[in-house]
Amino acid sequence: MEIQRKVKYEEELDKQFLDVIKQMSGSEEIDRCIQCGTCSSSCPMSVYMDYPPRKIISMVKNGFKDEALRSFTIWLCPSCYTCQVRCPSNIKITDVMYALKRKAIEEHVYPSRFAIPVLDKEMSKIIGRKGRNSELWLILNLYLKSRNPLGLLKMAPMGLKLMKTGRMSLKKESIKDKRQLQTLLMALKEGQR
Amino acid sequence: MNGYVYYPGCSLKGNSKHYEESILPIFKEIGMPLEELGDWNCCGATAYFSVDDTMAAAICGRNLSLAEKINKDIIAPCAGCFLTLKKSNKFLHGQSAKAQKILAALEKAGCGYNGKVDVKHPLEVLTQADILEKIKSRVTRKLTGLRVACYYGCQLVRPFTDFDDPDYPMSLDRLMAAVGAEPVEFSGKTRCCGGSLTGTIEEVGLRLNYILLKEAKRKSADVISTICPLCQFNLEILQNKIVKKYKENITMPILFFSQLIGLAMGLPKQDLGFSRSIINLQPMWEKIGNGGRP
Fold first, then answer.
1. What is the pLDDT of residues B35-78, one digit of tens each?
2. Which of 3.90.1150.10, 1.10.1060.10, 1.10.443.10, 1.10.357.10 is the CATH number of A12-106?
């Protein structure tokens, strides 16, 4: 067994992290967290998480950037907003989770074969290009990119049922004015530079 | 604004065609026919906000702009679209530098937005007192004896809770009671179905939906009535696997609330998308009586 230090020294913490996430999430209230745990107990996903939401908020507040960004928790948040409406300190917890996801993608520290960030990225790509999502093509991309062809095979019976009831189409959807969409996205990109 | 325009989103054109097929006839029947928003784009759902929130709000801004040009408020039946458009609308109303930047980009792309559009969910509109009365007066086929678990899911009532309670909403229960059905006390009514996680982590999808189906069964519901395409999809499509995994009979039809309302209003059964159900509806027809005919 390799002995590793389990506690961080203060100088290893990221002092700017709280401000960055406050700004990205639009939730100024993060440092008002009283660690009551209402979020964790309300969360339908906390039983699957490596750190429940209460801990994530504490990590953000105290500069544990690596731990927060590399956690599975942020990707397991299904955006049900239960924690957010119940938080006694009015912290926009779901929006904090979104900010952490974006930061993790920005810094390339998300689990790259994990299906959830792959789905988010692929879907955004399709919409950015075509203006509309095509369910079947999104699913195909998801399984290819997360390198899980077996998963695709397991989905086949479901796909057949959907086809039979006319609920899945092979058509690639698109808006008519794709040029407007591109102008819009370009104008935003320019503004970012 | 002068009336409403219909924003389908991807789901109502894809796996939830039966939502579109049932919601449009209802609005027509009550004298508020809905046109589809021309050249609408996808709302971006939760995915785009996880990747790039500026672009996510901007593409929603394009939809809002399209509605503003024709002087209409938006009706978005998908809870995901409803929340995403509403959230972006609020964001664009804010004074932040980011919001200003997005508005400028929209202007540049020829789809400037002045913040005049409101985003509504059909449930919110259909349960307004005068419209609810109108629906009641049109009921020709009361759903007497049908026990309905009203399932609101997450994003319709949270985080923006302007028309109902975030934890225990009642508007859908009232609507179902208005057409003669019997809403059951369903404690899972705003518990999350897992959203898109069911497609990415199966174990999660099975567990979350099992909890909901089991609770509905425990309250002896005959059917779960949903307002969201993703909820409908998850609750229905996973049933086989849930039965196999948990070895309990939790099977039940998952229908859009609009299908049940349309049925009660006497609209032709074959026009309401019931044939798209993957679950056997026969027990439900028998319960309503006479094969669902008046």
1. 999 999 999 999 999 999 999 999 999 999 999 999 999 999 99
2. 1.10.1060.10
Q: Exposed (0-12), middle (13-18) or buried (19+): which is B268, by Cβ within 10 Å?
A: exposed
The β-bridge relationship of strands B4-6 and B35-36 is parallel
**Half-sphere exposure (CA, 13 Å, Cβ side) for B124?**
20
* Number of other CB atoms surrounding residue A136 within 10 Å: 17
**Is residue A106 less than 8 Å (CB to CB) from chain B?**
no
Beta strands in B159-271, from DSSP E residues, in sequence order: 182-183, 223-226, 254-256
Which pLDDT does position B290 carry in this prediction? Answer: 56
Q: B122: helix, coil or strand?
A: helix
Is the domain B4-120 a CATH 1.20.1050.140 member? yes
CB B126 within 8 A of CB B26: yes
Q: Helices (DSSP H) in A71-148: which residue ranges?
A: 73-76, 82-86, 93-106, 115-130, 135-145
The ipTM, to two decimals, is 0.94
Residue B256 pairs in a beta bridge with B226
Is-above-0.90 flag for pTM? Answer: yes
d(C-alpha A188, C-alpha A91), whole Å: 28
A-B contacts (CB, under 8 Å): 175
Is A61 within 8 Å of chain B by CB? Answer: no
Give me B91's structure tokens.
């964001």
CATH number belonging to domain B134-292? 3.40.50.11810
How many Å apart are CA A155 and CA A136, to the nearest integer?
Answer: 11
**CB within 8 Å: A132 and B41:** yes
Domain boundaries in chain A? 12-106, 115-192
Find all residues with CB under 8 Å of A34, minimum gap 6, and list them: A88, A89
CB interface of A with B, residues 116-145, below 8 Å: 116-117, 119-121, 123-124, 127-128, 131-135, 139, 142
